[in-house]
Amino acid sequence: KGIAIDYLNYLVERTGLPIEYIYYDTFRKLQEGLAKGEGDIYVHMPDNFAIGQKFAASLTQPYMVVRDGFVTQRGRTAALKTVAMVEAHPLRKNKLEARNLKVKEYVDAAACLDAVLANEVDAAVVDSASYNLIAYHAKYQNLVYQGDPKLEAGISFGVSNKSPQVLYSIIKKVTNDMTKSKLDNITIKNMT
Among the four 53, 121, 175, 178, which has the fewest Cβ within 10 Å? Predict the structure, then answer.
C-alpha cells in the first residue's frame, strides 16, 4: 500500500510485467534484502548514484520528492543539538551531521516523535507524509512540523544490475512517460 506500490501497479498495467511483491517492514530490512540481491525492482530508492552503486542497481528518474522537516515541541526556541531519525537512511544522516547535529536512529517515525516527547532528542527529522499519517494522535498535539528544503530527496525505482538489461529499459521508459496528472492522481489517492 502506498504511492510507490500504486506507481509500480501502474507500471505493471502499462507493461504487462508479472510482479511478485516482497514486503520489508523497515527500511533497514529492505537494504539487507537489496544487499543479498533479493528482487529485481526496488521502490523508494534515493536518487543518488552512490546508493545505486552500493546496492548494484540502476536508478530511474525520480518519481516523487520526499520533503523532510524538523518536529519539535511547541514553543521550543533553543538551538537543536540532537535529532532523531528513522534508521538506515544514510543520505539524511549525512545531511544532518553536516549541520553538526548529533543523530540518534530509531526504528520508525513514531519512535522518533516519541523520543521528542520523552526529551531524548531536541527534534525528530521525518518526511511530511509520515508525519501527517501519525501526527493526529492526541499524544502528538503539542508537536510542530517545520519543513526544510535542504532535506528534500528525490525517490526513484532501482532495477537490480543482476536483472536483464531490458527490464531497466522498460521501467525507465514507462517512468519517463508518466504524466504529471497521473502521478498527481496516485499521490492524491494516497493522501485521502
Answer: 53
pLDDT tens-digit readout, 136-168: 999 999 999 999 999 998 889 999 998 999 999
The three-class DSSP label of residue 61 is coil
The Cα 60–Cα 45 span in angstroms is: 9
Is the pLDDT at 2 greater than 80? The verdict is no
Distance CA 110, CA 71 (A): 11
Residue identified by cell 525507465 is: 172
Neighbours of 128 (CB within 10 A): 14
Q: What is the rounded CA–CA span in Å between residue 167 and residue 34?
A: 17
- What are the E-state strand segments in the chain? 41-46, 57-59, 64-66, 68-73, 82-86, 102-106, 123-127, 143-147, 153-160
What is the C-alpha end-to-end distance of the chain, expressed in Å? 13
Kindly tell me the burial class for residue 84, based on how many C-beta atoms sit within 10 Å of its own C-beta (0-12, 13-18, 19 or more). buried
